[in-house]
Every structure is written in structure tokens, then in C-alpha cells.
Design goal:
Length: about 350
């Protein structure tokens, strides 16, 4: 996407996901439907260098990416990464199904000027024809994605400085959806029109997306994530932040933590998810969500999936990429939820690039 891909070509790519706490990479091999994970690696993101998904210090992040690339097996040449956050906008629009080529590109650019709240010369635009509109078969649904050009180029620069060539710059939520579909292929049912909410809980933010038959139709980002839980632990037990984070990640919380800090945090998280579902239903033609899919490092809170299912009366899934290749589990990483976006990016190895 965004001008880095080549039409009709397929490349084996390393998926690299930039997070506020860590930079994660996934390497896969095989083919669609029968792939295996060859490596899951992460390095720390330099503190303060990624704010609201925007890189504040490209040089320091480049150093971390170089460290990450040195840990990758083999000698990879190509990478796929993603842009996320408030500087990315996606929208599904409809066009006449006879419109193709330069006419379609011109129409999308004109429409982008109306729907993108950034100066047109500061953004990169990509689009993908999804297929006939369900209500009007004479028109095609087209997914339009736009991101600030500096967000795209800064990510590409850090990866290229580490010796890899960027072939794809995707949208984070769409990469996440790709990994969900790869791990849960049975969830797509065109007749059932199943509505699935994707909830990706990072350190500082919660991404809420809605997928219908494999396509993202709605997204929302808010400032709430695993860091809220860490702060609660640090405050309640009078711990330094870094120690509180290690205690959380390594599941070394005191026995009374379930009632003192965990339960209040889960209650707040359930409220956030319920509110996001209400906002989606009130702004769309869909009146309910049939399933929730959890991902992200912040989804590893004990009992979260069960609590969400009970409170919201919705089926909750928590797919684990390590189920594909269990040997990549480590002593403290028993579930691969935080690698879901990186996996979705690596899966671009099996998808011909659109542009």
C-alpha cells in the first residue's frame, strides 16, 4: 500500500509492527492455509520515541530495528509494516462498476479530498476494489486508505536503514484482520453476515474494529490500554513503574491483586468495549455484534475473555498465533496475542501486492 508495493508480485516479507513499548517481528514460511511461524522476535522501543503512533526520533528507533533485524533467522530481504492511529483514515465508498484504470484513480483522488481531513499534499492514498456492493450490484465497494506521508516514510526509513527493503506499508487494523482470518478461517460466512468486533489492546491505546465477512467496515481508536493496569499496580503496591510492568507480564501479582487492582481494571475495560459496540451499532445498519476477537499484549489479563463474554453475552475468541508453531513459546510468553498484527503483515508474503 501507499506506493511501496508492486502490482501482481509476491514477496516473502518479514512483518514488523511498531508498538509504543516494543517493536515486534514475525517470519513465516509455507503457503496460504498451511504456513508456519519461523520466528517471533521483539525488542524494546526507545522510551518516548513513538507517541500516538508517530515516530519522534527516527535515529533511535532505527537503532532498535537494526538490533531486531540481527536477531532474525536467515537473511531476509523484504519487509512489510503498518501505519496506525489517528493519522490513518479508512473508508469504504461506492463507485460505478464500469469505472477502471485511470478513471477510477482520478475519482478516488477527488473523493479523498472530501473525506480526508488532512491537506491532500501531505497524505499518501491507496485503494482496493472489494467487489460488488450488496445493495446495488451495479456499483463496487472500494476501500480507501489514507495516511500522513511522513508516517509512511519514517517507518520505511527505519527499516531500510537496517538493510531490508520495504515492499508493503499496510494499515495496522487490516493486518490484524488478516491474521484473525488466517487463524479462524471458518468465521467468514457471506450468508450469515456475521459481525465480528476486533479489540486490540496495546500499552497505551485500544483499537476497536468491526469486520463483516472478512472486511473491516468500522474502526475507532481510544486512549486506554495495558498501561492503565500497570499504573494501578504501581500505585496500589507502591512499586516503580518498570517493576510493576515486569510483575504484570510475568504474572507475579500478589494473591489479593484480583480484587484490589485486577477486577476494577477489567470493569473499566468492559465498559470501554460496551461503549464502542454501542457507538458502532448507533452509527450503522447493524444492531448487534455476534463475536468479539481479542488481541494485543493487553488482552493477556487473566480472566478477561471470560469476563467480557459474561458481561456482554457475546462469544469471545482469543486466537493464539503460537498454536501454529508451539515451539516459539517462552517461559514468560505463553500466548502470542501481541504478535497478531506482525503476523498479519508477514502474511502479505502470500498476497499479491495491490499497487
Amino acid at each position: 500500500m501507499f506506493g511501496f508495493a508492486h502490482q501482481g508480485s509476491m514477496y516473502p516479507v518479514v512483518g514488523i509492527d511498531f508498538g509504543s513499548q516494543t517493536i515486534k517481528a514475525v517470519v513465516i514460511s509455507g503457503k496460504p492455509g498451511r504456513f508456519q511461524i519461523d520466528a517471533c522476535i521483539e525488542v524494546l522501543t526507545p522510551k518516548g520515541c513513538l507517541v500516538d503512533y508517530q515516530m519522534q526520533d527516527v535515529e533511535r528507533i532505527s537503532q532498535s530495528v537494526r538490533q531486531l533485524v540481527k536477531l532474525l533467522p536467515g537473511h531476509p530481504r523484504y519487509a512489510a509494516t503498518a501505519v496506525s492511529g489517528s493519522n490513518v483514515i479508512t473508508k469504504i465508498t461506492q463507485v460505478d462498476n464500469k469505472m477502471t484504470g485511470s478513471d477510477l484513480e482520478g475519482h478516488i483522488e477527488m473523493e479523498a479530498e472530501q473525506i480526508i481531513p488532512f491537506p491532500i499534499d501531505e497524505i499518501s492514498i491507496d485503494f482496493e476494489v472489494l467487489g460488488p456492493n450488496l445493495s446495488d450490484p451495479t456499483r463496487n465497494d472500494v476501500l480507501v486508505s489514507a495516511a500522513r506521508t511522513d508516517s509512511v516514510t519514517s517507518r520505511a526509513t527505519t527499516i531500510q536503514d537496517a538493510g531490508l527493503q520495504v515492499k508493503v506499508v499496510d494499515v495496522g487494523l487490516h493486518a490484524l484482520a488478516r491474521s484473525v482470518l488466517a487463524l479462524m478461517p471458518d468465521m467468514v460466512d457471506e450468508k450469515a453476515q456475521s459481525v465480528t468486533a476486533l479489540i486490540d489492546i496495546g500499552a497505551l491505546s485500544l483499537t476497536f474494529g468491526v469486520m463483516v465477512n472478512g472486511e473491516i467496515i468500522y474502526s475507532r481508536l481510544q486512549s486506554f490500554g495495558g498501561d492503565n493496569f500497570t499504573q494501578s499496580i504501581a500505585s496500589f503496591y507502591n512499586l516503580p513503574y518498570d517493576e510493576a510492568e515486569r510483575t504484570k507480564v510475568q504474572s507475579r501479582l500478589p494473591a489479593d491483586a484480583d480484587m484490589d487492582v485486577l477486577a476494577p481494571y477489567i470493569t473499566l475495560l468492559v465498559q470501554q468495549v460496551r461503549r464502542n459496540i454501542q457507538l458502532f451499532c448507533s452509527s450503522s445498519s447493524y444492531r448487534e455484534v455476534n463475536m468479539l476477537v481479542l488481541s494485543g499484549g493487553g488482552s493477556l489479563i487473566p480472566g478477561l475473555a471470560e469476563q467480557l463474554a459474561m458481561e456482554l453475552q457475546i462469544e469471545v475468541k482469543h486466537p493464539d498465533p503460537f498454536d501454529v508453531t508451539p515451539r516459539h513459546r517462552s517461559e514468560y510468553v505463553t500466548h502470542g496475542a501481541k504478535y497478531m498484527t506482525a503476523l498479519g503483515l508477514a502474511l502479505r508474503s502470500f498476497v499479491p501486492c495491490q499497487i
